[in-house]
Amino acid sequence: MFSTINVIFYPKKRKSNKKNLVPIYARITLDGKRAEFSTGKQVDLQRWDVESGRVRGKTPEILVLNRFFDTLKAKCVSIYDELVRSGEFVDADTVKNIFLGNTKKQYMILEIFQDHNDEMESLLGKDYNPGTLQRYKAAYKHVSDFIQIRYGKKDLPVKKLDHGFITSLEFFLKSRKNCSHNTAIKYIVNLKKIVRIAYANEWIERDPFFHWKASWKQKERQYLTQEELTRLVEKQFDIERLQTVRDIFLFCCYTGLAFADVEKLTNDDLVTDLNGQRMIKTLRKKTKVLSSIPLLPIPEAIIQKYEGHPRVVAKGTLLPVYSNQRTNFYLKEIAIGCGIKKTLTTHLARHTFATTVTLSNGVPIESVSKMLGHTSLKTTQIYAKVLDSKLIEDMTRLRMNNIMQEQAKSI
């Protein structure tokens, strides 16, 4: 983006003294934004030429004064040129501050963002997982592209980030980057964390996100019905890899564990209570919240089936899990083999546990939340909302109750 700098001088008439001398101010204009400061000079208002922005006259004193204004303007333009050549951020305030010697460090958006991502990368496996880092790296790239396209800059001072920046970024993500609403909001929430770091360190005086609130669009959660789940349980595959992936998928359906949590399960995660009930107790990889899940017969049988599997023995894990990418790829074949038209993914198995396996069978939502390892009951309530069909089915059965029908006739 091409910019031009303009420097003019003008008198502050309201500040004249008894000798009718007024202070002369310099005004730098760049990209429609202004920055003003006093030149430290005073002139007779009657001698000031508004058009030229200089003092009228040929006396030595006046010539020296006008030469001062010319030098000041030339220095401001030189500062601007140097900033442009070096690829640094430049605006009217920046030129003014450098000229006046107020060269405090400017904290830049992408600079802070990169430092955050570098720290996150150094803590992989401790406080963060690779998926979280990948999302922040993607958010950095989107914000970088936005600044380049919208402002024609490589970076911007974090103090320049305002509510307009946020709303424009949201539009950019949806239009230029073709992000869905929720995906765009996630990236802005990532940026919000970076801004909060700047605010906490007092690099900015106010939080530009104060008047912004993330608005999420509720997506319909897909899950397998009981009929589809039964079809999957009864289906046998001749190809070993498909049979194994089918079993791992069923294990997720009947435990509610996310793929990343199943992948890391070992015998240490299996416990037996005083009544002899075997349970899985494991910290969720994503939230570090403890999931406590009593083992149903199907996942119990799957564990026993693979006890001596070579990959289980070699890795010391509970199950011979393929990578998430390969698993989801094989699940497409499995869906076709079972006549299931839904897109099977490892996460759909978790939704199936929450809906078909537990909530649909009357398991209290508090218990489901505990087994899923949710940090808030509100998260679990999302699954309860998709069960309207079950609600209608139950009420229909109640409506067909003979006693109730007879009682209705007497009203």
TrEMBL record:
Residues 219-397 form the Tyr recombinase domain. It comes from the Bacteria. Pfam families: Arm-DNA-bind_5 (PF17293), Phage_int_SAM_5 (PF13102), Phage_integrase (PF00589). The keyword NADP does not apply. GO terms for molecular function: DNA binding. The keyword DNA-binding applies. One of its GO terms (biological process) is DNA recombination. CDD domains: INTN1_C_like (cd01185). InterPro entries: Arm-DNA-bind_5, DNA_brk_join_enz, Integrase-like_cat_sf, Integrase_catalytic, Integrase_recombinase_N, SAM-like_dom, Tyrosine_recombinase_XerCD. PROSITE patterns: TYR_RECOMBINASE. Keywords: DNA recombination, DNA-binding. SUPFAM superfamilies: DNA breaking-rejoining enzymes. Coiled coil: none annotated. Belongs to the 'phage' integrase family. PANTHER family: PHAGE INTEGRASE-RELATED, PROPHAGE INTEGRASE INTD-RELATED. This is Integrase family protein. It comes from Flagellimonas lutaonensis.
